[in-house]
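So, can you check?
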Amino acid sequence: MPSLTVTTRRSSARPAEQLLDDVDLDLVAALQIAPRTPVNALADVLDTSPSTVARRLSRLREERLLRVVGRLDWSLITTENPRQLWISCEPGRSEEVARRILELTEVQTLLLTTGSADIYCSVYPLHGTDIFDLLTRRLPGIPGIVSAESQLVLRAYAMGQSWRVHRLSDEQTERLREHAVQITRERFTSPGQLSELERRTLELMAANGRIPAADIARELDISRSTAYRTAQSLLESGALRPRVDIEPAVLGFPLNALLSLTVLPQAIPSLLDTLGSHPSARYVSMVAGSSSVIHYGVFRDEEDLARFITTDLGAFPGITTVNTCVGVRVLRRHWRARDGVRLGDRVDGFLSRAANGDRTIG
């Protein structure tokens, strides 16, 4: 059996200030299951009043702790699979470098880290992006970068929208799933298949995944019935998937860890299946690079991470090395800035430019 080599560093992560009470946490848990569930249905499932649900939702939005947004299908915004980048910087220049990297529209997620890299980011080759130029000239040319290693994502087995807190009963979960969007129509495979109305509707729904047909109709000056049919078509085709945007730290998971795993080839499928369903999984992918699998997980504390490494990963003899980078600050997630646990603005206009194949991106 191959030996298991573990490289890690201790994190200074500590639980965030308690910003949500039990009612808030139950509401977040419900929205993570079915983000577009109507207020009345949420109140019924959570055994509270519609006014309470509406008031709590409004407060979470106003305090920039939660938004329901829409994730566009990759085929509508990208030309290739994403890359994950590990960047080393000159001493003392990590934050300066990170600010420059955030100027790149293609950067979906960025964390300052400790360990074998100073910065981790995920890059999506949006329509109009010359990915070779981005990876070999534009990004490495940023002053202060010493080295940048990119890894091509071959398969993604868990995404951020699938991570959730488990607080509700099985019965509550089943009732909420009745409101979850079902994919029943043929998928769009390129932005060229979208009509102008569909593209503009996607932009509205990407910014607000709970936007009602009446608001879409008012914004686009169309009938409510047309707005409803267009939105439903986009949802049922999987062109857009509503998701809850909230920092895991608010929910009691302040420790971000990125584990690069070297795995024997025959063990990769089983490991991906297991990690993809692990409670910590924010993003699990098979990659082409110096490692085989990347597990981006969120944990309650250092002991939680230690148990994951020694017990969960330790149960797989096919893993030969584990290299752990710990996130010390999240600066962007899903194209939206972070101000601690508060949500900032999303990268302005990127969805519109990407969907149009605008050659001026970046």
User: Anything to note?
Assistant: Confidence is low (pLDDT under 50) at residues 1-16, 357-362.
